[in-house]
Amino acid sequence: MMTDADLVRRAWAGHTDGYAELVQRWAGRLLALCQARVHRPDVAEDMAQEALLRGFRALHTLHDADKFGAWLCGIARRACLDWLKARERSQVVFSALGVHRRTDELLAGRADETTAAVEHADEAGRLLEEVEALADEHREVILLYYYNDVTYREMAEMLGVSSATVNARLTRARAILRERLSVCPKRGQPP
Question: Which of 164, 165, 159, 157 is nearest to 64 (CA)?
Fold first, then answer.
C-alpha cells in the first residue's frame, strides 16, 4: 500500500490518480474537521470539498510530502475560517444530522418499539446537542475519534499538536459530556 507521501509524489509527477487516492483517504477526516468548525453538515461538505480542491491546486507548494495530512487539514481550517468570516450564519444544531428523521421512521412501527426508539432518539439528540456545545478543540477530537475512527497519532498530525494534547483534549471532552449528561435532564432546563 502506498503512503500519503508516495501518492503526493505520484501526483507531483502528473498522475492524477495519486491525488484521487488521497481524496478518498482524507475526505471523511476533512468532513469531520469542517463539521467541528462550522456546525452545519451541508456547509461542512462544501468546505471539505473546497479544501480538497484548494489542496489540488496548491499541491506544488507542499514542501514535504510526509506532511500532506497536516497541510491539508490546515487548508480545511482556513476554508472554514473564510466561510465563518464571510457570512452571517444561522446556527443549525448538530442534531440536524438525522436523529429526527430516524424517530419519524420508527414511529411508523409498533408502539413498544416506538417508545423505546423515541427514548433512544431523545438520548442521542441530547448527546449530539452537548457535542455541538463543546469548544472547537474538544468537538474536533470527539468527531474525529468517534465518527471517523482516527487514531491519536493521526489526529495529532492533522491538528498540528502532540498526541498527549490530543489525549488531554479527548479526556476533557469526555469528562465535560459525562458531567453535562448526568447533571441536567435536558439542555437549557434546570436539574
Answer: 157
Helices (H) then strands (E): counts for the chain: 9, 0
Longest dimension (CA), the chain: 61
Q: Alpha-carbon Rg of the chain, whole angstroms?
A: 19
Closest alpha carbon to 75 in 46, 53, 44: 53
- Number of other CB atoms surrounding residue 17 within 10 Å: 10
Nearest to 80 by CA among 36, 113, 121, 119: 36
Please state the separation of Cα 137 from the chain's center in Å: 11
- CA-wise closest residue to 177 among 129, 137, 112: 129
Closest-CA residue to 29 (of 141, 131, 125, 174):
141
Cell 505520484 locates to 10
> pLDDT by residue (tens digit) across 55-85?
999 999 999 999 999 999 999 999 998 888 8
Which domains are delineated in the chain? 4-86 (1.10.1740.10), 94-124 (no CATH), 134-191 (1.10.10.10)
DSSP one-letter string for 46-106:
HHHHHHHHHHHHTGGG-S-GGGHHHHHHHHHHHHHHHHHHH-------GGGGTHHHHHHHH
pLDDT classification of 28: cutoffs 50, 70, 90: very high
